[in-house]
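Hey,
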Amino acid sequence: SASGYVALYENTTGSYNTASGSAALQKNTTGSYNTASGNNALQKNTTGSSNTASGRGALYSNTTGSSNTASGIATLRFNTTGDNNTASGTNALYTNTTGDYNTASGRQALYENTTGDKNTASGSFALQKNTTGDYNTAFGYKAGDVITTGSNNTIIGRSADPSGATATNQTVIGKEATGQADNSVTLGNADVT
């Protein structure tokens, strides 16, 4: 069903789709089981299926990506073919294009992620600068926000960070704690071996 100017306008054989809002699911042709709510939500989707987009511009650029959930204005805005991503909060996973299995909860969480896979960010601005890093987990406001390409890091605590943008295998726990080196555990500001 469609409600809104040119919503589901180009649909051909796609089925079980729901579009509510101007240009929601406008370009969909054969994609099925999609739900778009909000102006321009899932606008460019063509064959992607089982996506849910709620909020203006949510999953806007998605074409063939499937099983994504975007809740909030411009969440997963530039996702094209990425699958199985979940974003909740304004601009969460905003820049993601082909990254898969990412979860972002909070304003601008995983904001700059493009192709990174299997990251989890919970908290506003958590892992916001990550671009291609994989398997990072960050909990807390601005947690892990220095990571760009580093992988396999676990960061817990407000403004806690590993030792740098390319950090690998660091566990950092504590408010404003800073990791010491790759393959290490830091509690507070003390290195634990």
